[in-house]
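Why does residue order matter? Because the sequence determines the fold. Keep that principle in mind as you read this record.
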Amino acid sequence: MPLSATDQEMKRLFDAYGTVESALVIKGKFSGRSRGFGFVEMSTSQETVIAITELNGTELGGRALQVSEARPQILAS
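Structure:
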């Protein structure tokens, strides 16, 4: 997603596909600037699937979106 994207912009984008519980653009710890990705939580799994299907590959601010379900982070031992 574009580095200029905001939480509110992400919420508006996903609102078209259901109820957005939360939308968060991830920012750098020190810079405070977007890291180019974020998380959106929809109210139902059906809305989640629809939003992923409809938005994956679309453009926002001139950049193609890669929309997928979040996967647990794997920590190295």
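The first strand starts at residue 20 and ends at 27.
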